[in-house]
Amino acid sequence: MEPQYESCVACPRACAINRNEGKTGYCGETADIRVSWAGLHFGEEPPITGTGGSGTIFITGCNLRCKFCQNFQISQDGLGRAVSSDDFAKIALKLQEAGAENINIVTGSHAIPAIATCLRLAKSQGLSIPILWNSSAYETTEALDVLDGLVDAWLPDLKTLNPQLSGNVFFAENYPSVAKKAIRRMAEKSPLVFSDGKDGVTRLVSGVIVRHLALPGKLADTELALRWFADHLEGKAALSLMTQYTPVSANPQAREIDAFPNRALIQDEYDRLLDLLAELNIENGFYQELVADTEWLPDFTRTQPFSSKLARPIWHMSVGFL
């Protein structure tokens, strides 16, 4: 039981319900921490993947309702299995044993108090690789402070700075103001540090990589996000410009997308994005090639949700350790 859940304000929704009594707020979760899948993931940015893969743990539930979420089975449909703090620690330690470069916790914003408890236990039992916090950035600075001394690097989304778009597509009109504060707090906590290994591979040790997914037909919104990054974070964080937007037909929310054309980016849009990076002198970071591919879309009902080249399963909600 986490005291913070007695009247939960663990995220910006501030539902103020008692999760310790089994009640659920916007995130759909009680005080239990639930996990859907854990494994070595090889599809992250190169300094995160390294050679051993990122030890990724997918947390069930979410405090957003993104209409195009590729992980909707776990973020919105509730696929997952309750784990104890000891179970969570064992998963993290198993990933470390399997050669993971880091522990990459995905979508844990609504479960920060419980995850902090789990990480302290795992560290006391020998977890020593870096901890990465992979989130939407829809988090309060007070909640992020709970992770002090536990998280080494941060992988926040900067989805949009357009309140109208964030209300329509992400169901959080205040997302822009919240995310900007959260990301700046992350950058204050962790200076950007990369290390060059003896194997010639550069790895992220500390700092922030801000991820922005460009949406089709919404390049003006991407420009807003990139200009904010250039003005406030260039030199303090790295940027990851993602161009992988893919219609997720299996997600029921996708039928409600009307704020932009529900298609992949086209070449003219991609070329404009590269021009923007040059115009804004954003040099520290990464951008994706424009490749039309749906193979990476996961199915978390399977023990291997991804293609075999993208991931190696270690734990699944249906069977435990594999």
Key traits:
322 residues, alpha/beta, TIM Barrel, twelve-stranded mixed beta sheet, 9 helices
Describe the protein's architecture and organization:
This protein has one domain: Aldolase class I (TIM Barrel). It has 322 residues and is an alpha/beta fold. The protein is globular, with a radius of gyration of 19 Å. Helix 8 runs parallel beside helix 9. Helix content is 28%, strand content 20%.
User: Count the helices. How many?
Assistant: 9
Helix content: 25-40%
| CATH superfamily annotation | Aldolase class I
Q: What is the averaged pLDDT score? A: 96
CATH topology name: TIM Barrel
Architecture, according to CATH? Alpha-Beta Barrel
At the first level of CATH, what is the class? Alpha Beta
Rounded to an integer in angstroms, the radius of gyration calculated over CA atoms is 19 Å
Structural category is alpha/beta
Order of helices and strands: EHEHEHEHEHEHHEEHEHEEE
Short description:
This protein is an alpha/beta fold. The chain has helices at residues 46-49, 72-75, 85-97, 112-124, 141-145, 163-170, 175-189, 219-232, 267-279; strands spanning 33-41, 54-59, 81-83, 103-106, 131-135, 153-156, 193-196, 202-213, 238-242, 285-287, 311-316, 320-321.
